[in-house]
Design goal:
With about 190 residues, the protein is mostly helical. It contains five helices and two strands.
Length: about 190
């Protein structure tokens, strides 16, 4: 679907929602003049309830995947592939975590839990493989950068100081790090008093 078509459909749905909201108000005003205030309030209340049910229904249809997403939700398709894969990975991990919580609470049978978890894991495996394939051309350059960083760290003055030899506690004979002030076993002071 092109962006222009999606935008036109979105604007149509937006206008339709305003019309749906206006219909109960207009009917309430008309019935108030015809049947009195109690009838007008009843019509307004029932129309408001109907509108609320319709909005919840459309939201549920969108969440379940039965309805088409609005253009703002389709903008993820225009994002770079890395961002889309990252979003899919996070969505699947969140779904698996939610599934495990539901199972722990006893809301899912063991069979449903295993089936759903395997489906999510299979999708997650595909997303991770796609992500690896997408990043494969950059892996060699990243490894070279890491190796260069390690070489620089090894040659720096920070690494040139030799480590202190281990200290043995005179009280309990446990070996401690060379810069320890207290024994890690008996808490005897090792510093200059040892």
């Amino acid at each position: 679907m092109s962006n222009d078509t999606a935008l036109a459909e979105y604007l149509f749905l937006l206008r339709a929602r305003f019309v749906i909201l206006a219909v109960p108000v207009v009917l309430a005003i008309i019935t108030t003049f015809v049947g009195g205030v109690p009838v007008g309030i009843l019509v307004l209340a029932s129309g408001t309830l109907l509108c609320a049910v319709l909005f919840i229904w459309s939201s549920l249809r969108t969440l379940s995947g039965d309805a088409q997403l609005l253009p703002s939700a389709e903008l993820e398709d225009a994002a770079p592939p890395e961002a889309s894969l990252f979003a899919q990975k996070n969505r699947l991990l969140r779904a698996i975590r939610d599934l495990e919580n539901e199972h722990a609470l006893g809301r899912l049978t063991e069979e449903d839990f295993e089936t759903s978890r395997e489906q999510y894991r299979a999708e997650l495996r595909q997303v991770l493989e796609s992500s690896d394939a997408l990043l494969a051309p950059h892996r060699e350059a990243a490894e070279l950068l890491v190796e260069e960083y390690r070489r620089q760290k090894a040659n720096s003055a920070y690494r040139s100081a030799p480590p202190k030899p281990p200290l043995e506690c005179p009280k309990c004979k446990v070996s401690n790090e060379g810069d320890a002030r207290f024994c890690k076993s008996c808490a005897f002071e090792l510093g200059g008093n040892a």
